[in-house]
Every structure is written in C-alpha cells, then in structure tokens.
C-alpha cells in the first residue's frame, strides 16, 4: 500500500468542495484531517468538528503531511503556503494570483527547505499544462505558448457570440457557476489570464516575471461594432495570453483580446473551456483542450498534484537552470485593431505602420503596428475611454504559427 497522505485543507468554497466530492468517490488512502475556513457561521455540508478558523491547527499539526491551499485571499494564502513549506510540509495550491505574485520567493523556499509546492490547478483548470511544459518539453525548442486561459471571460464571449446573451447576464451566470474570481475584474480584465501566463512562462522558458510588468487588456470594452466587424471577417474575439521566445534571448508576454480565425484551434474553444496552443520547433503545433474553471475540473487537477506528492514529485524549474539567460521584454511590435473615439489616443500610441483605417460618425478604427510598451503606457487610458484593442495578426497575415519561423518579425 502506498504511504497514507494526511491532509490539512484550507478553503471549502467552489474548488475545496469540488476536490472533496472527487476524493470521497475513491479509496485513495488519504484523509482530510481538518479544514480551515474563514466564516465559522456558514452552513457546511460536513460535520462542524472538521472545520476550524485557526490556521495553526493545521500548520502545527505534526500528523498532517500535506497542506492544500484553496482560498480566495492572496496575502493570507502566501502566509499559509510559505509557513507550510518552511515547516517541512509539502503544499498543493490553485491560487494563481498568489503564485504568480510570489513565484520567486516560492521557488527559493522550496530549494531552501527541500519541500514541494505543486500548482497544476492554478493554470487552465483541468488541463495538465504545467507538468507538460516542465517535463515533456524539457528538450524541445518552444517558440510560443498561447491560448485561452480564463474560463469566465470565454464564457461571456461565447454567451454573447453564440447565444446572444448580454454581457452583464453572462457575467452573472459565470459567477453563479463558480467560474469567476471574487472580483470578476480579474477575469474580464485579463489579470487572471496574466497570472496564469506568468506561471506558465516560468515552466516554459525559465523566466520569472513580475505580473505588474506585463500588459493585460481585457474584454470589458468590446462593443457591438467590434463584434459586427469580426463577424463580417469570419473571426471571433478570444482573450489570449501570448508567451513568445524572440531572438537574442528575450521572451515577450502579454494578454490581449485576439481575433481568431476558423483555421485556428482556439476558434472552437467555447464557454468555460480553455485551450493551450504550444508551438514547438520539431513537434510543430500542439493543442491542449479542457475545462478551465469550476470545482470539479480544478479539483481533479489538485487531486493529481496530491497523488504526485505520494512519489515525492517536485518541479525542478529545469528551464531556469538551462535557459537562465532568457530575459523578459516589452520591446516588441504588435499588429493591433484599435476602436477609439479620441484621435489623441491614436497619436499617443504612435503607430509605426497603418494597414487599415476607417472613420464614420459612430465608429472609428485602425489596424496597424504599435510597440507593446506604448500600449502599456496607455493601458488605463484605453480602458477609461472605453476604446477596444485586439491583437490582430489575422488581419495582417502574420499569425503566431507562421511567424514562429521568422523570429522577431513575427508580429
Ligand atoms: N473557481 C474556480 O474555477 C477556480 C479557482 N481557482 C482559485 O482557487 C482558489 C479558491 O477559489 P474558489 O474555491 O473559487 O473560491 P471561493 O470563494 O468559492 O472559496 C474560498 C474559500 O476560502 C476560504 N477562505 C478565505 N480566506 C480564508 C482564510 N484566511 N483562511 C481560511 N479559509 C479562507 C473561504 O472561507 P468561507 O467558506 O468561510 O467563506 C472559502 O471556503 C482561488 O485562489 C481561485 O483563484 C483556481 C482555479 C479555478
Ligand atoms: N476565474 C477563473 C477560474 C479558474 O482559474 C476562470 O474563469 O478561468
């Protein structure tokens, strides 16, 4: 019989309960000894003796050998996870914001204390992308990793495009289904996708990037004109993080809405499903597809990490050792679609090339090439002015797939 896992679980919300549902269907030789929650007055589906609001009852319990952290409070999560790692307990977490924000510290803690932190559930829910980037693509030259990394925003886009549902109602449904973050701005504004991309970049390329340095523009300002424009061109809008190795040892990373054509894998990824497109030198293009949000899909990924701890699995962060010289950069050119009202925004973005321009009384747009840093500098203005930006490689004939062979000129 494999060694018994004794678990201290933090959080009994959507993911915590999803994990519990899965565990109870199987005889896995593991036991949840205690569950820490925040609100002692909330009605629970399990005996009250199992719950506590005192984190030390779990962290200081020598019988517990694994801590599972599934809470919705970033700072508290970091405190719990770092304390556990320091005290010799292995940890599984799905808290992508916490992991992306404190990735360097968490890697250092694992090395210093010889403990393991696994977080497959933090990136694209049920899709096993972290272990694949870490292990399978160990020796493969990765050109790019991109995809749909957020279920809620994809759900909203699908509900609008396919079912004609308005934005607010679709968001409410995503919240009711347990897909959305406590603050859904994280989902629709591209923050959540950015945290996931930051984590994926560490395993794909060995770069640890501060999320504050990464552009994220979301879908909040998508208008009827934008939708009409994409329909006419037989495109769809998807919220897509792109992680791309450039020439001369640089990695670019950004999150933008993207126009996606029928021939692209992401075109048919709908609702809460996520998709990851890996462009590799020899394997060429590969596609991972699965549910990206919700208690059971995420719980399944968390359980996979728990069982991996049985055989002492830990991330080696191999690319950081092998490719340690890669540097993150925002100095790249992108082809974008910009729908705007104020001409001064166009001036501020300082387009280097304009492919297409349209102006009427009610609708103005430009398709052209800008520097990513200019977008970052005007990120808040774009949102305030309710302008809409999308990565528009489809409109200029330069896609991530074809571009991979052209190094820095891809965009
Ligand atoms: N929902 C999803 O589809 C996915 C979520 N995630 C991530 O997983 C984590 C959990 O998400 P989710 O389950 O949806 O969140 P929920 O809001 O559904 O649940 C959060 C849980 O955390 C508990 N909690 C909050 N603060 C503390 C604290 N300081 N100590 C102990 N317990 C605490 C809450 O307690 P109480 O019950 O008393 O309120 C609640 O049980 C988040 O980081 C989220 O980003 C990752 C992938 C998918
Ligand atoms: N809010 C997230 C949940 C999973 O990570 C999403 O919608 O994808």
Automatic annotation (TrEMBL):
Q: Which domain of life is it from?
A: Bacteria
Domain Aspartate/homoserine dehydrogenase NAD-binding, chain residue ranges per copy: 11-120
Hey, which pathway is this one from?
Answer: Amino-acid biosynthesis; L-threonine biosynthesis; L-threonine from L-aspartate: step 3/5; Amino-acid biosynthesis; L-methionine biosynthesis via de novo pathway; L-homoserine from L-aspartate: step 3/3
Domain (Homoserine dehydrogenase catalytic) ranges: 128-306
* Any Pfam family: Homoserine_dh
- On whether NADP is a keyword of this UniProt record, the answer is yes
Q: Which family does it belong to?
A: Belongs to the homoserine dehydrogenase family.
The name this protein carries in UniProt is Homoserine dehydrogenase
- Supply the source organism's classification: Bacteria, Pseudomonadati, Bacteroidota, Sphingobacteriia, Sphingobacteriales
């Amino acid at each position: 019989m494999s060694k018994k896992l004794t678990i201290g679980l933090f959080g009994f919300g959507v993911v915590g309960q999803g994990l519990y549902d899965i565990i109870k269907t199987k005889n896995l030789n593991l036991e949840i000894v205690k569950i820490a929650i925040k609100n002692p007055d909330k009605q629970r589906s399990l005996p009250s003796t199992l719950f506590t609001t005192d984190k030390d009852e779990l962290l200081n319990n020598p019988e517990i050998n694994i801590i599972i952290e599934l809470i919705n409070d970033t700072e508290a999560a970091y405190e719990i996870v770092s304390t556990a790692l320091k005290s010799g307990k292995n940890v599984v977490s799905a808290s992508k914001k916490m992991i992306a924000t404190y990735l360097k510290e968490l890697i250092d803690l694992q090395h210093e204390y010889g403990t393991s932190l696994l977080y497959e559930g933090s990136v694209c829910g049920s899709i096993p992308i972290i272990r694949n980037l870490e292990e399978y693509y160990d020796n493969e030259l990765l050109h790019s990793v991109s995809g749909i990394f957020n279920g809620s925003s994809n759900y909203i886009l699908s509900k609008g495009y396919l079912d004609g549902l308005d934005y607010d109602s679709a968001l409410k449904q995503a919240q009711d289904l347990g897909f959305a973050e406590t603050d859904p701005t994280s989902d629709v504004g591209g923050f959540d996708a950015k945290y996931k991309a930051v984590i994926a970049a560490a395993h794909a390329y060995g770069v640890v990037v501060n999320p504050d340095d990464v552009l994220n523009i979301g879908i909040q300002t998508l208008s009827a004109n934008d939708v009409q424009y994409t329909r006419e061109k037989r495109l769809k809008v998807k919220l897509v993080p792109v992680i791309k190795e450039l020439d001369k040892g640089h990695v670019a990373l950004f999150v933008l809405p993207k126009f996606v054509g029928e021939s692209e894998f992401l075109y048919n990824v709908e609702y809460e499903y996520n998709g990851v497109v890996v462009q590799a030198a020899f394997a060429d293009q590969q596609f991972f597809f699965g549910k990206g949000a919700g208690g059971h899909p995420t719980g399944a990924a968390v359980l996979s990490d728990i069982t991996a701890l049985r055989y002492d699995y830990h991330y080696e962060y191999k690319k950081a050792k092998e490719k340690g010289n890669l540097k993150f950069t925002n100095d790249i050119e992108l082809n974008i679609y910009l729908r705007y009202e104020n001409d001064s925004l166009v001036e501020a973005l300082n387009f280097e090339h304009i492919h297409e321009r349209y102006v009427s009384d009610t609708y103005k747009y430009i398709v052209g090439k800008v520097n990513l840093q200019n977008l970052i500098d005007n990120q808040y203005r774009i949102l305030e002015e309710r302008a809409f930006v999308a990565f528009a490689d489809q409109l200029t004939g330069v896609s991530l797939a074809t571009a991979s062979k052209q190094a820095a000129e891809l965009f």
